[in-house]
């Protein structure tokens, strides 16, 4: 998968339709999440679409997240969020300004408020997970 910086550089030059396609492609590239993990416990609250995020601790102390959504654009958004934190330690995740990392994508102005309303909740869940694993 491309780096967040590479994606932001490409995204800047795309028109609205191609930006949607990029997000959809990111979502399609997500590692599959088994249906058994799509439970109420892994559901992100406050999203207009269903979004599930499941953390797994690696032997090396990093966190790896599985995620999915029932909406293609939302799945792309969570893929973008995960690019900022995937396979990092809880301390690294806690130190990342995820909102700033996503700023070049200007999602609030590119997408409807329905599509972006859950982003803060996705980020909060990831931060809370990192804090829980940091203990």
Automatic annotation (TrEMBL):
Residues 13-128 form the Fe-S metabolism associated domain. SUPFAM superfamilies: SufE/NifU. Pfam families: SufE (PF02657). Belongs to the SufE family. This is SufE family protein.
